[in-house]
Amino acid sequence: MKKVTLLLIVTTLVIFSACTSTEENVQPNEVTPEIMAKIEALGFNTKDFPVHLHDGNLVVENDIVFRLDQLDFMSSRSQFATEEHYSTDNLVTGLPRTINVYVSTSFPQKYFDAVDAANARYNAENLTLTFQRVGNSNLADISFTPSPWWYRFYGILGSAGFPTAAGDPYNEILLTRAYYDNVTDLGALTTTIAHEMGHCIGFRHTDYMDRSFSCGGATDNEGASDIGANLIPGTPSSPEVGSWMLACSDGTNRPFTSGDVTALNYLY
């Protein structure tokens, strides 16, 4: 079956809509060669995925976000992954721990349903992390929020970050409603949400060593990483079909595979 990446679909929509909005006729911030060199040193793929910079926020690989001023403070440890599943250096600590997840009321009901389903997927594995949805943003460890307008302008579907050095999950997941409002498959939306939550608790893209596995024509691998690409013992030695943390989505529902379960249980 021929794969069509979500990015290509959204990019087409963005090009059309950008012509009708004066707000979106804004030039992106400059990503200097120095910034690019630092991002590449962290092991992120800059060949197949453009790097975006806006108001001090960097978006790499089209779904990972961090502040520009974090570049010089990332971990100096480095490993090159030769197995599928791997984690960042920073993980969530204080286990066992309950992670409170808040969904902005700006989202329609299906987003709430998908977050509940994603929470249930994680909780069914009896991890030392338990996820629950809360109705008060002040209580949240992770908040789901509509992405800013410039995500749509750049063709970014959503983003999340990695755990903090203090052992807390990344606190915000942004989703682009211009795309996901049109997704009718609740399982597919649940998978996207679980994927971004995976980043928040320390998982990187699982086909690290061979991105062409899920990204089709994208063949540039992520390379050695200073942010952490730590091998998870017991996971497959080659990319696993259907893993929830594959770099590129095929738009289908992807519950946890056996390798995913091994990785989750090893870390948490």
From TrEMBL:
Transmembrane segments: none annotated. The keyword Signal applies. SUPFAM superfamilies: Metalloproteases ('zincins'), catalytic domain. InterPro entries: MetalloPept_cat_dom_sf, Peptidase_M10/M27/M57. GO terms for molecular function: metallopeptidase activity. Residues 1-23 form the signal peptide. It comes from the Bacteria. Keywords: Signal. This is Dual-action HEIGH metallo-peptidase. It comes from Sediminitomix flava.
